[in-house]
Amino acid sequence: MHIEVLKSKIHRVKVTEANLNYMGSITIDEDLMDAAGLIENEKVLVVNVNNGERLDTYVIRGERGSGIISLNGAAARKAQIDDILLIMSFASMDFEEAKKFRPRIIFPDASTNKLI
Predict the structure, then answer these.
(1) Is 111 a catalytic residue?
(2) Which of 8, 21, 33, 72 is at 20 to 30 A from 86, Cα to Cα?
(3) Selected catalytic residue, list 58, 70, 89, 92
(4) pLDDT (mean) for 38-64
(5) Residue 8: active-site member
(6) Which helix (H) or strand (E) holds 99?
(7) CATH number of the structural domain spanning residue 79
């Protein structure tokens, strides 16, 4: 049996851009992607702490060290600049493997989106 478990989480980052006229996705600073174990085009669940909105999208690599968190395309309607987000990815794995698996969870500085 396979189950889905939390693989990666970026806990409480601030939206820096909302670009309605861009192909849909979320742009994430490459430093945050590396720390959380996310790769470009990976599916993520984005939760807006400020308004409760939730959406599935995919990751686009943002400039390393920029702190960028940009909701793009239709996703831009789900948040405003300075809203706080949780960004999560999940993995499917064998039940026994899942019992031992530990997700990568990072807690960047919510005012700068930089790693602490």
Answers:
(1) no
(2) 21
(3) 58
(4) 97
(5) no
(6) helix 95-100
(7) 2.40.40.20
